[in-house]
Design brief:
It comes from Serratia marcescens. It is a single chain. With 99 residues, the protein is mostly helical. It has helices spanning 2-16, 22-54, 56-76, 80-88, 90-98. It has a single domain, classed as Up-down Bundle (Growth Hormone, Chain: A). Helix content is 88%, strand content 0%. Helix 2 runs antiparallel to helix 3.
Amino acid sequence: ISVYNVFDQQFSVYFASQFASRAQGNEMYGFLNSLQVFLEAGGMFLAPLLVNRIGAKQGLLLAGGVMALRMFGSGLVSGALMISAMKLLHAVELPILLI
């Protein structure tokens, strides 16, 4: 869990470095984070249906798989668009994990 927390804390720094200026990167990160929060809120409505269908154990395994994909994928992809897609996977992972 410590590695995951460090990854999450450092993500904004890495994301901002993908842009021409740090200010532009921070602004875009704010927009990305806002979109993520709205997607997570929508996911909270759908996650109970998914977890009830596949079971709690499989739900945790799915959330862990998405988490691993997001962490490894962030290291492998390049460019702001693909990094954004990796960040938005958190909106899939979190509702499943919380349910």
